[in-house]
Specification:
three-stranded antiparallel beta sheet, 2 helices, Outer Surface Protein A, domain 3, single chain, 2 domains
């Protein structure tokens, strides 16, 4: 039995879960999410818990078991508390500013890069700490938006300038040495 898959998903108060066949619909204070899962994995709700079981012990179904439970748990967590990723802008003259709902990112190009958030995503910008928080209720979308912003100017290994995740360590390289 999967160590993750056998754990029940606890549904907090204020979150409504509807299971229809292999489709799970979760609605909460932050938003609502819907996802279809494999028909080989059974999803049942008992009280304030969601239980996930598999039909067979084959490797394919064992892999789906834990994945299904993790995805449902992320849906429930997202609509109740939400997710966030923090990005740091490092470098001389590099900064990020709020432009309405968009983020204006100045990272050494001749123009600012205006990043428009997709539906369900919001930005919180701290100009003093040069940090950009990407917040939303869908974990996949939050991670993808953060990755797209980081892709604008990834950290380079010589001076460490660029956009990085909070706590990310950038491997530094030695520069050229003079002939002696």
């Amino acid at each position: 039995m999967s160590r993750i898959g056998r754990l029940p998903v606890v549904v907090p108060s204020g979150v409504e879960v509807k299971i229809k066949g292999n489709e799970v619909h979760v609605k909460g204070p932050k938003g609502e999410l819907q996802r279809a899962f494999s028909p080989d994995i059974s999803v049942k709700q008992e009280g304030n818990q969601i239980l996930i079981n598999r039909s067979s012990n084959e490797p394919k179904f064992r892999a789906l078991h834990g994945t299904t439970r993790a995805l449902i748990n992320n849906m429930v967590t997202g609509v109740s508390t939400g997710f966030q990723k923090v990005l740091e802008v490092e470098g001389v003259g590099y900064r990020v500013e709020q432009d309405g709902v968009n983020a204006a990112i100045y990272v050494g190009y001749s123009h600012p890069v205006i990043f428009e958030p997709p539906k369900g995503i919001s930005f919180e910008i701290d100009t003093r700490a040069r940090q950009l928080k990407v917040m939303g209720y869908d974990k996949e979308v939050v991670g993808q938006v953060a990755a797209d912003i980081r892709k604008i100017r990834p950290p380079e290994p010589y001076k460490g300038k660029g956009i990085r995740y909070q706590g990310e360590r950038v491997r530094r390289k030695a520069g050229k040495t003079a002939k002696g």
